[in-house]
Every structure is written in C-alpha cells, then in structure tokens.
Amino acid sequence: MPSTSRARWILADIAALRALLLLFRGAVADWDYGSLRQLLASPFFRAGIDLRPIDFIAGERRIRGLESWSEALRSLAEAAADPRRSGRLERKGMQARLLTEDLAAFDSLVDQIAPVSATRTESEWVDLTLDILEGRRFELRSRLLDVPVGRYDLVRADQRGVESLVDLLREWREIGKVEEELEPTEWFDRLRRLLESNEIALTTPESRGVQVLEAHEAALGAYRHAFVVHANDGVFPQPWTNRTVFSEPEIQHLKDLGLPLSSRDDALRRERALWAAVTSLDSVTFSCRAMSPDGQLLTPCLLIPADTIPRPDTPKESGAVGTDADRDNKARFRGPTRRRSTARSAPTPIGSTRRGSWRRKRNGWSVPFDPGVRGRSDPWTRTRCARRYSRPGARS
Fold it and tell me: What's the burial of 140, exposed, middle or buried (CB within 10 Å: 0-12/13-18/19+)?
C-alpha cells in the first residue's frame, strides 16, 4: 500500500551537521584522542589516515594538540624505519612506508584545521563556517552525494540540513557585523544552540496513498478515517516535563509577571486539545502496544473510551493479566523456573567406570556425563555420539 509521511529533523541530529560540530568540538577539547579519532573516522572528512597508528600512540601516552600528534606520528615513522624497532610495529600492521604516507596526509589536514583553533570575531566565525559548508574548505560538500547503503533518506536530510544552515548563517551575517572576539568554545556553544533550536521537515518522494502524519498536522486536516498508532499511556498525550531550573510555583509566578513560560496546566490543556482534535472524526481506530521490549506490560491511554478497549480472553479465576501471547512473552523474559534438588549424586571412582560411557573429570573423580543434557540438538554432538557409541545420546 503506498504511503507518504512527513518527518521532522532537528538540525543537531543530522549526520553532516554533527560532523561539522566534531570539527569545532575538537578545537574546544584541544584535539585529545577522542575528538581527533572521531574526526578522522568521519566519512564527511575522510582524511585517508589509518587509525591504527593513532590508537597505538594513544595507548602509549596521553597527547593533546595537533603539533604533538604530528611529532608522535613522525617518531613512530622513524621507529618503523629502524630495523631494530620495526618488528613490534609490523606485527600490528604498521609499516614505514604507510606511516610516511599517513604523516603527509596528517600534516595536510593540520593546515586545514589550524584556523578553527584561533580566536576570531563573530563575523569571521560565520564566514569560516560558510566556507566549510559551501566546499571552499575540506570536502564536506562533495561528501553529501555519497549514499550509505541505499539510505537515500539520509542523503536528503544531509543536503536539506546543510542548505538550511547556510541560509541561517547568511541571514545571521546580514543582520550586522559584530566585532566581538570569540574563543572557539564560545562559537561552538552558539553554533550548537542554533542547530538544536531549528528543524526541517522532509516529505517522502511519492506524496500519495496513506498519509502518516504527526498529531499536530493531523489535527489541521479533515480525513474520513484516522488511525492513532501507539496510543499508550505516557506516549500520547505526552506528559509534561519541566525542562527549566524553576519549580512549578516559580514558573506560575513568572508567568503571572508576563513572561512567556508554559506551566504544567498549559501543557496538559494543550495535549488534551490536540487529542480531541485528532480523535473527533466519526471513524477512529486506536492501536496500542501490549508490552515493552523489556517485557513490561503497557496500558492504553486513559482518554480512550472504555468500550473500545479489547478485553483479554482469560478466565477471571485464573488471575492472569493480558492475552495468552502477553503471558508467553512475559514468561520468556522472566526465564525458566529452576528447582533446587537436595539430593546429591555420589561420585563414581575412576577404577569402577563402565567402558563406553562418556565421562568428565571433576576434583579427581569421573562423573557420568549425559549428552542429552547438553546440546542434544547440536549436530556435532549427535555425530560424535553416533560415531563413538552404538546409539546417539546413550546414558551411562
């Protein structure tokens, strides 16, 4: 059945823009091992440097700064060229020729990264970020055309996200030049907040068939039938969460003073109005999950009419909750019930063991071993038993 959907993406969740943040985060962290390795492993920068020398150097000592990394790689290349010290490195897959190539590629990358670590004005930071996004620095722009394992939706998100950020930065630059000096840490914080506060919307290429919408968009349209998917308690309507440093009385007091803050009552009223707008059609079907992935039973939304919730086909006297499938799933997550036995089998001396029985030694004694207990369905065990004994799974 053809379908169309409209998904929202926060700019901070788009892979290409996360790679951009890696570049500035590395300058903030003074290029420690974690930040440098993430940048070198990113497919959007693709420096062509083997990560094994970086891992080896980080295992030997702690390094910060691009110059220190360059010196460490140079020392490693010299050690690989020395026949007396090259054996250990060759066993780890690091040869002198490859290390020399990695050192040249790393020095070229350092020349491009160095401007990111300097102090600039806000306008200069905007221009530098635009140069990276528009392909004048690095090759991030050309990497947007690479399709990861047929995921064309990710390519669309990367391209739309980069274009959206370019438009935001150009608008930022046109507002006015600010000559305030900013450290890399300050620019990283401002860019990160900009990405977290903006989002884009992507629609599937074929805009026909069943429309999969969010509740905010479904409430604005008129449809003949609606399916509310995952209408569980705590999912939709969404519960209120205080994401501020103020308590509820403080938020209400600030709201009374005229500040545009949302209190708990406002959020709950907005969610109830959204639920009423989505479910006001004549034909509405609710879909609820019966169990979470970790085996916990889930309850439907409390706003669903009681006469529309299916009742389980279970006798009341059994005291069971949920359907047969729910009980089976819960039993699977709970695991099998083990019974402890008080009787202990007496060990058989080695000299009195029967010939032809499969036994194992434990604390100087030979205890009978039943192949049917361990892996009777294992083909290797069945073949081994059939070859050694008259019949597979024979007991001692």
Answer: buried
Does residue 317 surpass a pLDDT of 90?
no
Cβ-based neighbours of 248, under 8 Å, separated by 6 or more: 242, 263, 264
Mean pLDDT along residues 38-49:
87
Q: What does the alpha-carbon distance between residue 177 and residue 281 come to, in Å, rounded to a whole number? A: 52
| Tokens 């009552």 found at | 265
How far is it between the farthest Cα atoms of the chain?
Answer: 96
Task: Give the pLDDT band of residue 37 (cuts 50, 70, 90).
Answer: very high
Distance (Å) of CA 373 to CA 231, 394, 395: 45, 11, 10
DSSP 225-251: -EEETT-BTTTSSPPP---SSS-HHHH
Give yes or no for a contact between 367 and 347, defined as CB atoms under 8 angstroms apart.
Answer: yes
Q: In degrees rounded to 5, what are phi and psi of residue 312?
A: -70, 145
**Residue type at 87?**
G
Report residue 9 CA to chain centroid gap: 15
**What DSSP state is assigned to residue 135?**
T
Instruction: List the structure tokens of 388.
Output: 């050694």
Which pairs with CB-CB distance under 8 Å and at least 24 residues apart come from 307-316? Answer: none
Q: What's the CA gap between 237 and 300, in Å, rounded?
A: 11
In 3-state terms, what secondary structure has residue 211? strand
Task: Let me know: does 226 contact 286? Beta carbons within 8 Å.
Answer: no
Q: Residue 325 has what DSSP assignment?
A: H
Residues 232, 289 contacting (CB under 8 angstroms): yes
∠ CA 39-44-51, rounded to 5°? 40
Describe the chain by its helix, strand, coil percentages, rounded to 5.
50, 10, 40
3-state secondary structure (DSSP) of residue 68:
helix
Q: 20 and 13 in contact (C-beta within 8 Å)?
A: no
Write the pLDDT tens digit of every residue in 264-275. Answer: 888 888 888 888
Contacts of 64 (CB under 8 A, 6+ apart): 30, 31, 32
Cα(98)–Cα(81) distance, integer angstroms: 11
Radius of gyration of the chain (CA): 32
Closest CA to 74 of 47, 45, 105: 105
Token pair 């010939």: residue: 355
